[in-house]
Amino acid sequence: MANHHENQSMIAPSISLRRRGMDFLVTCAAGGAVVLVLLPLGAVFGYLVYKGVGSINLAFLTETPKPPGETGGGMANAIAGSSLILLLGSLVGVPVGIGAGVYLAEYGRNRLGNLIRFTADVLNGVPSIIVGIVAYGLVVLTQGHFSALAGGVALAIMMIPTITRTTEEMLLLVPNSVREAAYGLGVPRWRTTLSITLRTATSGVITGVMLAFARVAGETAPLLFTAFGNQFWNWKVNQPTAALPLQIFTYAISPYDDWHKQAWAGALILIILIVFSVSAVRFVASRGMLKGAN
Amino acid sequence: MPGPQPVPSAVEKIDARSHPRLLEGVGAGEFADRIFYVTMLACGLSVLALVALIIYELSTKSAITWHAFGWKFFFDSDWDPVNEVYGAWPFVYGTLVSSLLALIIAVPLGVGVAVFITEMSPRWLRTPLAFTTELLAAIPSVIYGLWAIFVLVPILRDDIEPALGKYLGWTGLFTGTPYGIGMLAAGVILAIMVVPIISSITREVMTAVPQQQREAVLALGATRWEMIRVGVLRNARAGIFGGVILGLGRALGETMAVTMVIGNRPEISKSLFAPGYTMASVIANEFSEATSDKYLSALIEVGLALFIVTIIVNIFAQILVWTVTRGTPARAHG
Predict the structure, then answer these.
(1) What is the pLDDT of residue B321?
(2) Which of A47, A75, A57, A50 is nearest to B149 (CA)?
(3) Number of domains chain B contains
(4) Do B38 and B164 have their domain in common?
(5) A187/B26 CB distance under 8 A
(6) Which of A86, B13, B63, B79 has its CB surrounded by the most CB atoms within 10 Å?
């Protein structure tokens, strides 16, 4: 620091040059950091498309896996299984998450609210594998076998804190005058919250839900010992079920070339499904079609 | 806002007549309000219940090994399911080393990206750059793992590790056969996954530093870098540190990508080329194979330890970030 002040008081061109040189170096370093960070991003997407596109075919999208070592087969059952697990997870996670968010925004200006807010942040940071253990203890041990339901419960636990916090944030953006206007018309509080506040914040809340959805859609760790995986079709909630991320994992660490190719194809499909579902719901929400909830 | 907020029921009835559609089903207003409140409260409480449930599940189901081994469990390096002897030190070690390695790589990159985006990049480039780096956080962990196996590991094995071994082998950190798969690969892939967290938090706290700070330092004749160092980074350092800690929390608990490239061997080696094992990956790999109660209990105890550590790390990080973004914005003499 002392040195720095001396530099400032002297008007020597060489020092000024050193300072400008330092400035230039740091600018280069920061720019270099950006390049270094964008490089893997580009590489991941590049490889996904490059390796994935060549491996996606009709069989991949319509057939179940072949036994180890045989070529061909597909991940259709895993795509279906993922949808089933995500549906179960959303059925539980979305209403509870939105409810908790409504509580925090509309009633949560107190100590309990702060505690819940804090706990939601804590829950957000819990490693997904731990959530898997809990869902295992809760559902798998009780039922006696792996199931899509257990996977759904694990994903629901992961969705709740994200949805809670974004819903709260979005509801707090709705100006109080809107609520007061509703109260002024004699609308009860519950009706105001549902039909006025939540409805005003619909697109924001949906964005939060989709963020949570996108986050859990690619989760693998909590499904390892809950949904477990399955080589065949399964639509039963209480049976072991294949999931796309699980299948990608199994195939990626397998020794077979054909399975590696399918893992890339599966990864590409997973990314496309995530991006597609997120943008589809956002598009619908922005067109106001979901706003006519009542 | 004229009148009290909870409208008396008399007014409700008047309004109900003039706007019947709007007020459909308002009759039992207070009762419905009560039910609505209780339902929302239940949803809110469920968040508390979930964390309580996690703690309960983890602590009761790990009781067997806790009673059998006590604290020794975490410092013993013998993990032998066949003879029912469990020591988790290799996993603790692997988790710590891979996460630290990730931070060493990710912190300069993450902070550099944040500095570039907030202070240097042209205005039109800011949003796309921020969006793109955040996109890194949206890629599922299993896809990072897949990419790491088939792209990163071969690069490490054929180019980077031989070079490191040649020039830095004397440190003892880069010795042995370069397999590609191992601690270094885990550290690198973790770094890639942690960078977006560090850079987005750093960006947030840097934006919270008031513009006058920058202008004041510039007015003293500072170059841009001096302005960033004195005016911005110094004021935001607590928050940046918070972001780093938050990244650490993510790295500690990260499972799939690490499991796919770390080699999964419960060994402790000084060389970063050697395979290792982490707490999260041992759970991922062995949980569904755990046949005895004691084995399962040992794995759940590893989970409990991981849970406690990540919780502490996350709470610590939250507090640090808060002190910058909402507490004391900027002091001239930080």
Answers:
(1) 80
(2) A47
(3) 2
(4) no
(5) yes
(6) A86
Quick check: B151 and A47 CB within 8 A?
A: yes
Residue A288 has pLDDT above 80, yes or no: no
Which residues fall within 8 angstroms of residue B11, CB to CB, at 6 or more apart? Answer: A186
**Segment holding B111, helix H or strand E:** helix B89-115
pLDDT score recorded for residue B3:
40
Is B225 within 8 Å of A214 when comparing Cβ atoms? no
Lowest average pLDDT, out of A151-155, B81-85, B105-109, goes to B81-85
The CA distance from A168 to A164, in Å, is: 6
What confidence category does residue A198 fall into, taking pLDDT thresholds of 50, 70 and 90?
A: very high
Mean pLDDT of A177-198: 92
Q: Are residues B35 and B172 in the same domain?
A: no
On the 0-12 / 13-18 / 19+ scale of CB atoms within 10 A, A294 is: exposed
Average pLDDT over residues B20-42: 75
Look at the block and give the residue holding tokens 């893992």: A263
Domain covering A80-243 in this structure, CATH number = 1.10.3720.10
Contact A129 B150 (CB under 8 A): no
Residue B215, domain extent:
68-327
Burial B157-191 (b: 16+ CB within 10 A, else e): beebbeebbeeeeeeebbbeebbbbbbbbbbbbbb
Q: Tell me the average pLDDT of chain B.
A: 87
Position of tokens 């960033």? B228
Domain contains B235: yes
Q: Is the pLDDT of residue A166 over 70?
A: yes
Mean pLDDT of B214-233: 91
* Domain CATH number, residue B201: 1.10.3720.10
Q: What percent of chain A has pLDDT over 90?
A: 67
Lowest-pLDDT choice from A153-157, A279-283, B61-65: A279-283
| Residue of chain B with shortest Cα separation from A140 | B288
Tokens of A111: 């100590």
Q: Which of B17, B87, B71, B228 is nearest to A186 (CA)?
A: B17
Interface of A with B in 225-244 (CB under 8 A): 225, 228
**Domain positions in chain A:** 80-243
Give the residue from chain A lying closest to B263, CA to CA: A253
